[in-house]
TrEMBL record:
The keyword Cell inner membrane does not apply. GO terms for biological process: DNA damage response. Residues 139-171 form a coiled coil. GO terms for cellular component: excinuclease repair complex. Residues 1-25 form the GIY-YIG domain. This is UVR domain-containing protein. Residues 136-171 form the UVR domain. Keywords: Coiled coil. Pfam families: UVR (PF02151), UvrC_RNaseH (PF22920).
């Protein structure tokens, strides 16, 4: 229940599994749910959709229930922050010209040595902040850098940052804001049939609906609603930091 697909994918989702539960809390067929992976162990990290949770040196955001929305979000991130999605890169070792993604400003072409590891790393930092719902932090940092460029009369670079800020602000305005900018809330609803229950967790961060996760709870026939909810809350929040 979001105003746009990207809104539902901004923050890392949490998949919680309880050890030896009296009823099983699980996402139905969770192996099919996609994640966004950031290969932070690489010099020039990639950001991509995956269902593989065993990629060495990767940080994961998700799971998400809509692979199509994940792909659209990744397109948005590449447009704003210019991050690579190719499988291999050898900085400065490319024998060819940069690929099309460089020419349409979706990648800074680290394969040609066109961007430093430090500069590219800032793009990755911004990407992960975005996925955590911390767009205001990104805007503050970009504004500070933009002002620095302006003072140094590097107006073209300042204009590029201004465009990025406008794109991020546009996304933020498109989202439905219910609370103050610093508000952090979780809302839980439940539905059930004779044997099973579904719990929906609506996660708000910085006043924005960041993600909705649905949990299937099996074998709940002999449990009251309050028992199901209290068991879920106890086990969910004992396993997360946010």
């Amino acid at each position: 229940v979001t105003d746009n697909e990207t809104e539902a994918l901004i923050l890392e989702g949490s998949l919680i599994k309880k050890n030896k539960p009296k009823y099983n809390i699980d996402l139905k067929d969770d192996k099919s749910y996609p994640f966004i992976a950031v290969t932070v162990g690489e010099k020039f990290p990639r950001v991509f959709l995956t269902r593989n949770r065993n990629i060495k040196g990767a940080k994961y955001f998700g799971p998400y229930t809509d692979a199509g929305a994940v792909r659209k979000t990744l397109e948005y991130l590449r447009k704003i922050f210019q991050i690579r999605d190719c499988k291999k890169v050898r900085p400065g070792k490319s024998k060819n010209m940069p690929c099309l993604n460089y020419h349409i400003k979706l990648c800074p072409a680290p394969c040609t040595g066109n961007v430093s590891q430090e500069e590219y790393g800032r793009n990755i930092d911004f990407t992960m902040l975005f996925l955590k719902g911390k767009d205001r932090t990104i805007i503050d940092r970009l504004k500070a850098k933009m002002e620095q460029y302006s003072k140094n009369r590097e107006f073209e670079k300042a204009a590029e940052l201004k465009n990025k800020i406008e794109d991020i602000n546009k996304l933020h305005k498109d989202q439905k804001i219910f609370f103050t900018a610093e508000s952090t809330w979780d809302f839980i609803s439940t539905a059930r049939d004779a044997d099973d229950a579904v719990i929906s967790l609506f996660t708000y961060r910085s006043g924005v609906l960041a993600v909705v996760n649905n949990f299937i709870i099996n074998n709940t026939r002999y449990f009251k609603d309050e028992e199901i909810l209290s068991g879920f809350i106890e086990n969910y929040y004992s396993n997360i930091n946010d």
